[in-house]
């Protein structure tokens, strides 16, 4: 992959970083609305991936990025996105991730990043 995006979702919001060759390119974060706060941690994590991709879309397009590593500390979200297997509520969110990637023309490699090593995105969320 040409770049790496790390993601973290907390009960109050989400955070994401974009790195190229271990150099920080951009950071983004946001808060959840009243409805989103009540969602499961898995749904919030998948929503955070979509939010991160949307936040960095201009940068990804300008740099002509075609492959992106995504790292999340939520192993369920990683597995579900990789395998396209999940509950009905999660499938809707996974489709959003894939739709956003398709619009950007990006292939991904998604992996689990233990929370201890996901410090910056964790701080932003």
Explain what this protein looks like in three dimensions.
The protein has 125 residues and is of the alpha/beta class. The chain has a single domain (3-124), classed as Ribonuclease H-like superfamily/Ribonuclease H (Nucleotidyltransferase, domain 5). Helix content is 46%, strand content 29%. It is built from six helices and five strands; from the N terminus they run E-E-E-H-H-H-E-H-H-E-H. The protein has a five-stranded mixed sheet. The radius of gyration is 13 Å and the shape is globular. The relative contact order is 0.25. InterPro entries: Hepadnavirus_pol/RT, RNaseH_sf. One of its GO terms (molecular function) is nucleic acid binding.
Question: How would you describe this structure in keywords?
Answer:
5-stranded mixed beta sheet; alpha/beta; Nucleotidyltransferase, domain 5; nucleic acid binding; 6 helices; 46% helix; 5 strands; Hepadnavirus_pol/RT; 125 residues; single chain; RNaseH_sf
Q: Please, how many domains?
A: 1
Q: Which CATH class?
A: Alpha Beta
Order of helix and strand elements from N to C terminus: EEEHHHEHHEH
> What's the CATH H-level homologous superfamily?
Ribonuclease H-like superfamily/Ribonuclease H
Helix tally?
A: 6
Strands, total number? 5
Overall 3D form = globular
Task: Return the structural class.
Answer: alpha/beta
Low-confidence stretches: none
Q: How large a portion of the residues is in β-strands, by DSSP E?
A: 25-35%
CATH architecture: 2-Layer Sandwich
Q: How would you write the strand order of the largest sheet?
A: 3-2-1-4-5
> Which topology does CATH recognise?
Nucleotidyltransferase, domain 5
Rg estimate, integer Å: 13 Å
Helix content: 40-55%
Cα distance spanning the termini:
24 Å
Largest sheet: 5 strands, mixed
Mean pLDDT: 91
């Amino acid at each position: 992959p040409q770049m790496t995006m790390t993601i973290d979702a907390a009960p109050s919001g989400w955070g994401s970083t974009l790195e190229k060759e271990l150099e920080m390119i951009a950071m983004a974060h946001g808060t959840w609305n009243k409805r989103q706060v009540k969602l499961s941690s898995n749904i919030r994590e998948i929503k955070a991936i979509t939010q991160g991709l949307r936040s960095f879309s201009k940068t990804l397009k300008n740099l002509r990025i075609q492959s992106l590593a995504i790292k999340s500390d939520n192993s369920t979200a990683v597995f579900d996105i990789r395998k396209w297997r999940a509950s009905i509520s999660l499938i809707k969110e996974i489709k959003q991730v894939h739709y956003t990637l398709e619009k950007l023309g990006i292939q991904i490699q998604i992996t689990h990043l233990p929370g201890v090593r996901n410090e910056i995105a964790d701080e932003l969320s």
